[in-house]
Amino acid sequence: MKADKHTIMIPPSKKKKRLLIALISIIIIVVLGIAAFIGIQFYIVKYAEPYFTSFSSDISADAALVLGAKVNEDGTPSLMLQDRLDCGYELYQSGQVQKIIISGDHEKKGYDEVNCMKEYLLEKGVPREDLFLDHAGLNTYDSLYRAKHIFQANSVIVATQRYHMYRAIYIGRKIGLETYGVPMADKPIYDMWKQNIRESLARVKAILDIDILKRQSTYLGDPIPVSGDGSVTEG
Q: Which of 17, 64, 210, 222 lies 20 to 30 Å from 200, alpha-carbon distance?
């Protein structure tokens, strides 16, 4: 069969060259993507490390910010959440903070991190007026954003695990909140391989939220200064 006189025939050598260029381009894009991904991990870790603190430190803040985590089916805090609550309580007991913001997910009916956290701390003897409930802390970014803009804290000490602390401090400081953290141990029972995978992706999202999108919290509202009475946040 003869080729139409208007058909442009590409020599096999040129086809191979184009395929090779396309393959090299894909490899370059993939390598650059992997390099950027790894770079973000190191950047956030190195940025946050100087702001790690301890219970024996003389650093104080307006409030401890206890970040939510899984609640068991019976309504009790998971081990991960209990460790965070114990950290917040110890910061309160040591006098490093005068108030505690408990921020978690209470968006769906039947799942309530915040009241579970409240009851745990009340049982430990923390007065209601010193507990500020944030029912719209759907994620780490929202919790820190609302701590600054809704609860009007100028400084917080975050209570969470080490793997999570780097991102929390990065977010807090990038949005203008003086943020420190007492990192809880990363225990094997937490299924750390799953947590680390999730966290590495969340760090990329943090860069997008803060440095590119500059987004606000999902839910906003009237200010509730953490310097006041926390019991107004119940209900």
A: 64
Whether 14 maps to a domain, the answer reads no
Give how many domains the chain has, as a whole number.
1
Structural domain harbouring 214 = 49-233
Does some domain include residue 32?
Answer: no
- Taking only the tens place, the pLDDT of each residue in 113-151 is 999 999 999 999 999 999 999 988 889 999 999 999 999
- Which is nearest to 77 in space by CA: 130, 36, 113, 23? 113
Q: What are phi and psi of 223, to 5 degrees?
A: -65, 140
Report residue 177 as tokens.
């909140």
- Are 194 and 161 spatial neighbours (Cβ–Cβ below 8 Å)? no
Angstrom distances, CA of residue 49 to CA of 77, 166, 177, 184? 28, 7, 16, 14
9 SS3 class: coil
Q: What is the pTM of this model?
A: 0.87
CATH number at residue 101: 3.40.50.620
- Predicted pLDDT at 26: 93
